[in-house]
Amino acid sequence: MMCQALSCLEMLLWLLLLLLPPLFLLVLLFLLLLLPPLAMLGQRFQEAGLSWLASLQHCVAWRVLSWAATWQQQRLEHNTLHVGQSQQQALMWCLQRAQGPLCPPTDMSIFRNHLPLTKVSQAQEEENGGQLLPPTSNQYHGEASLQATLLGLVALNKAYPEVLAPGGTARVTPTSPWPSPLPWPGHILDQVSPPGTKDPGALLLEALRSPGLKALEARTAVELLDVFLALEADGEELAEAIAAGTSGVPLPGRAAELREALEQGPRGLALRLWPKLQVVVTLDAGGQAEAVAALGALWCQGLAFFSPAYAASGGVVGLNLWPEQPQGLYLLPPGLPFIELLPVEEGAQEEAPSTLLLAEAQRDKEYELVLTDHVRLARCRLGDVVQVVGAYNQCPIVRFVYRLGQALSVRGEVTGENVFSEALGQAVGQWPGAKLLDHICVESSILDSSEGSAPHYEVFVELRGLRNLSEENRDKLDHCLQEASPRYKSLRFRGSVGPARVHLVGKGAFRALRTKLAACPSSSFPPEMPRVLRHRHLAQFLQRRVVS
């Protein structure tokens, strides 16, 4: 009787799917969310019936998602065509929901005068897991989070039609890269990952049991790098668990495939484990470029990377509508969170210059992002600098360049994050066989290492392919820095700044540091990887792991 009831229910829902207008599909989706308990009960009677329910849920979820994405695309088109009006509405929404005295919502100049720009200190940033946190920020506030998820899923499915098919995707970190916690991406669209699982080991084990994966998801590229490092360290234990059927049916053949894939080294490991894999989905945040480069050169060689959004401390600030573009281009949307642009050239002046709205952005110019927190009405300078590379209707398309809070300065020279990273990349390219996995810098005063010498940079690196650093290789970084920064070169010539000192740390040192940073209670938002440490205890944490 239970099997007949399930069969009739399936036929009825299929008929409703064909006849009902899109609006009623939303109601149907919530009904489908109630089906899994019924399906689990029916499993005792007829296992085959579940495939119909799974197919039905998947089809309805895609119909609802596509309809919702179409609606959001229309809203985005309208808002980007009327960007001034859209930003004014977003500002009024913030003002109406703010706590405390409000400033008049009709005049931007009055708004700016009543609410001066604020900036969280670098020390607070580091203590909060490497992030600049606006007051009472929340990861999922703002229409941009919903748009990034809906439009990103549809764009990803268009670029890679098979990756979101049932059983084609696995998430290997406890948190999803999709910014908005919608019910269907993981549960209804049949992710391999067990629903609700927070154990990274269990997520990785389930992904390894599924050789037919077409997409791999992780919250950030840095976290995915840690997953592959853990896979290498615990490979034999994972193979034994797969062979014994710890989380399901014993799969001794799959365990043998895992061992064979690991024996061949890290290069191309993902495609050896999952031959049908096409794309890696991670959420872009500060300090991720190095991890993406390391993954692309080694474990995920030959795979495309896609980030649905750029996440900063105040929420999602950029939408990625172009999965086929590898450069990481993002549209700054005119809704919530409310975004202003601070010209970088003027940002160094003692008095903060006036900010610009999105429609006033100029191509090729660089701007620091300013987000307005709607709870306490704080106009927070995030420190994230973007360069305008194009336009979508009246809104700027940008690429993220660097973070102002990650600059080095021991004699007032201000070596930016992008300048240092470029110089380090050039130096590592001259170290035979070396692949850079991660790095962090410390100003010598933090470690009291300038006694008897000029102030300098202490640089900690984790590498693959090189176990020891010769003095000749260490000196190459300082030469590259001088070529990249005329100011640094001048100070080095005068002896005001000493040569950069490079330290090689052991395997897992940065993974342990990230665990330490993530233990901070306020580090719930997608973690930005710091490139400069300002606290002695964190710098000493890495110093104790130096091997060369």
From TrEMBL:
Annotated ranges, domain GH3 C-terminal: 422-516
Name of the featured protein: GH3 domain-containing protein
Signal peptide: none
GO molecular function: acid-amino acid ligase activity
Domain GH3 middle: 332-403
Superkingdom of source: Eukaryota
Example of a GO cellular component annotation carried by this entry: cytoplasm
Pfam families cross-referenced by the UniProt entry: GH3_C, GH3_M, GH3_N_vert
InterPro entries: GH3, GH3_C, GH3_M, GH3_N
GH3 domain sequence ranges: 231-296
